Amino acid sequence: MARDYYEVLGVSRGASQDEIQQAFRTRARRLHPVVNKDPDAEERFKELNDAYSVLSDPKTRARYDRFGDDWRKIPEDWEERVGAGAGAGAGGGGFRGWTTAGDGGRVRFTRGFGEDAGGGGVDFEDLFGAFFGGGAGPGGGGGRVDIPGADQEAELPLTVEDAFHGGHRVVTLAGPSGQRTFEVDVPAGVVDGQRIRLAGQGGRGTGDAPAGDLYLRVRIQPHPRFRLEGRNIHVTLPVAPWEAALGATVPVPTPGGTAKVTVPPGSSSGRRLRLRGEGMPNPRGPDGDLFAEIRIMVPPSLSDRERELFEELGRTSSFDPRSEQ
């Protein structure tokens, strides 16, 4: 499901139009892709625009407040039709909420007509059939309303390597009507939270209306070696004491394979080495970078000769690491 628009704007549901406008301006300045270089800034800015376009219009806001994510499927004059339908057959009252039914994503409205409600639900076909004078047939003034299916969302877990390379995947999801299998083309360089759209694979529409879309939200799993920050990759680079002291060219792992990095002489633990373009691919701009953080490792046990050399180094060196702090 999409995020709540009030949450996106950071305002309460009782916020005034001025408060909504001010909240939008504040967040738009911070999230605009021109000034915000985060990988997800563009998507978050679009989400902010969507929220503002709905909540800044009193009419669309009223529909959103009543029907949530399915407000777009409700006619603009729904209040008049609800009033007419209630007067004709329900004896007054109105609709007070909605839940998602387990029959392929169709939305069911909970009726609020007092003793006649019975705690049941009315699906869109029944609901709008009553509003337009009954009759679900397609011809002869039948009054059927075709409602597009609801969009749905599921998580797609990926390893760092899968996200780096992308490629064709077969995904099986469990739903109310059983398991469904999809073929998905994962773009190389997807980042955590990014959505992949499968058109027409969401909830079923009513009548002849099309099905909704299915959105797979990428969730990159923790990795024992790589840590992601946007499109940048961080990795620990173990080096020997002599490599850190004298400098060396050493291999460093990346999701795309092994690369080479030069350790400058005199490097200490914690120093970060940057490999440009070795991070996550970016189809819309420069690739991310890889940062290798040096960690000096000592042998867990020493041979006699190694011990002699370290003892000689200890006697001849004037270096005091504690005086450098």
SSE topology:
Layout: H1 5-9, H2 17-31, H3 41-55, H4 58-67, H5 78-90, E1 94-100, E2 107-112, E3 121-123, H6 124-131, E4 152-158, H7 160-165, E5 167-175, E6 178-186, E7 195-198, E8 214-220, E9 227-229, E10 232-239, H8 241-246, E11 248-254, E12 257-263, E13 272-275, E14 290-296, H9 304-316
Parallel strand pairs: 4-8, 10-14
Antiparallel strand pairs: 1-2, 2-3, 5-6, 7-8, 9-10, 11-12, 13-14
Could you walk me through the main structural features you see in this protein, from its secondary elements to its overall organization?
By secondary structure, this protein is of the alpha+beta class. Among the domains are: 152-220, Urease metallochaperone UreE, N-terminal domain (HSP40/DNAj peptide-binding domain, Sandwich), CATH 2.60.260; 227-315, Urease metallochaperone UreE, N-terminal domain (HSP40/DNAj peptide-binding domain), CATH 2.60.260.20. The chain is 28% helix and 27% strand. It has nine helices and 14 strands. It has helices at 5-9, 17-31, 41-55, 58-67, 78-90, 124-131, 160-165, 241-246, 304-316; strands spanning 94-100, 107-112, 121-123, 152-158, 167-175, 178-186, 195-198, 214-220, 227-229, 232-239, 248-254, 257-263, 272-275, 290-296. Helix 2 runs antiparallel to helix 3. It is elongated.
